[in-house]
Amino acid sequence: MISSTDNSRHSRAPIRLQQADDAPATRAAVAFAPPDEARSISCVIPCFNEGPNLRRLLPLLEDILWATRLRWEIIVVDDGSTDDTVAVAEAWCELSGFRCISLSRNFGKEAALTAGLAAATGDAVVLLDGDLQHSPELIHTMIAQWVAGAEVVYAVREQRSDESRFKQLGSRLFYSLVNASDRFAVPRDAGDFRLMDRKVVDALMSLPERSRFMKGLYAWVGFRAVALPYTPAPRAEGASSFNTRRLVGLAIDGLTAFTTWPLRVVSVVGLMLAVPAFAYGAFVAVDYLLFGNSVSGWTTIVASLMFFIGIQMISTGIVGEYIARIYEEVKGRPLYVVRRERGTGLETGRT
Ligand code: UDP
Ligand code: MG
């Protein structure tokens, strides 16, 4: 149930802005928004064990959405949380505008985002994390840009000083690999915190693949995008779910979903090794047959054998990664399973 402090929300009190420094952005949103136009906006929040954070985020977000004077809905997607995330979110669903979709288990952030996008009914959809790292105050500026004509407004991290050197290096390597060959680039410092127009959401949802590396899919669909620099706040409560193992898994998903050049590299490396090896073999055979020089150097043979076996295994591994993705796609399982849905759709911010 909603706590006593939460009950004050039932009154739909007039809007207070949380921080003085958002005021200019708010004014911009209101000035740009044609008051009579019934635009609507959905906010999708993927959540995995974010109970304490949701208690802070939902009232903040509600105030911010009221201030936009648009019709709005907030969709919490519970990604198999084991804490009180569902209880907190469903308590808010007693108010109109709030919805909660509970998935049957933890399917991962990308699947949770997809579930939220599929359920969203707004003319624009904002994606934001449930841990208050994506400051909801930025939504005003996003809406202002959208009303002014942008189809995508994405937040770009201004600096990554909060990340370890290892993570920064890994992310630089990943983006240079994933952007090595394609006609579109996945921007390095842009994440899931973004506003997308309905056209963009429909385009995203029309992509049939199961391997959903969202950052790549956003870039692939294109549209007129505006970047919005921001500095992510530290996580409010709890710890990030993305440890090194999960990040490496995500990077491999991204690479296999958006590149095929590693397969070509395998062929080229194979060729570059096989041709000289064949030539050398021919030379040794001729040398022995014509001049009687027998081959010596057991160590060299063993070392080169191990080297070539290593290359072969890496190559098979790379091919295997692609085959695994094909297998995933062919199975055609749904991306997520919904346990239950609560709440009703759009609230009107002008009543
Ligand atoms: N999340 C999710 N499913 C998962 C892992 C994370 O829905 O399996 C959500 C999480 O609750 C948060 C967002 O995705 O709202 C970002 O996760 P996190 O803060 O752990 O990642 P980071 O900020 O380190 O990228
Ligand atoms: Mg986070």
TrEMBL record:
<dbReference type="InterPro" id="IPR050256">
    <property type="entry name" value="Glycosyltransferase_2"/>
</dbReference>
<dbReference type="GO" id="GO:0016757">
    <property type="term" value="F:glycosyltransferase activity"/>
</dbReference>
<feature type="domain" description="Glycosyltransferase 2-like">
    <location>
        <begin position="42"/>
        <end position="203"/>
    </location>
</feature>
<dbReference type="InterPro" id="IPR029044">
    <property type="entry name" value="Nucleotide-diphossugar_trans"/>
</dbReference>
<dbReference type="InterPro" id="IPR001173">
    <property type="entry name" value="Glyco_trans_2-like"/>
</dbReference>
<keyword id="KW-0812">Transmembrane</keyword>
<keyword id="KW-0328">Glycosyltransferase</keyword>
<feature type="transmembrane region" description="Helical">
    <location>
        <begin position="298"/>
        <end position="324"/>
    </location>
</feature>
<dbReference type="Pfam" id="PF00535">
    <property type="entry name" value="Glycos_transf_2"/>
</dbReference>
<protein>
    <submittedName>
        <fullName>Glycosyltransferase</fullName>
    </submittedName>
</protein>
<keyword id="KW-0472">Membrane</keyword>
<keyword id="KW-0808">Transferase</keyword>
<dbReference type="GO" id="GO:0005886">
    <property type="term" value="C:plasma membrane"/>
</dbReference>
<keyword id="KW-1133">Transmembrane helix</keyword>
<feature type="transmembrane region" description="Helical">
    <location>
        <begin position="265"/>
        <end position="286"/>
    </location>
</feature>
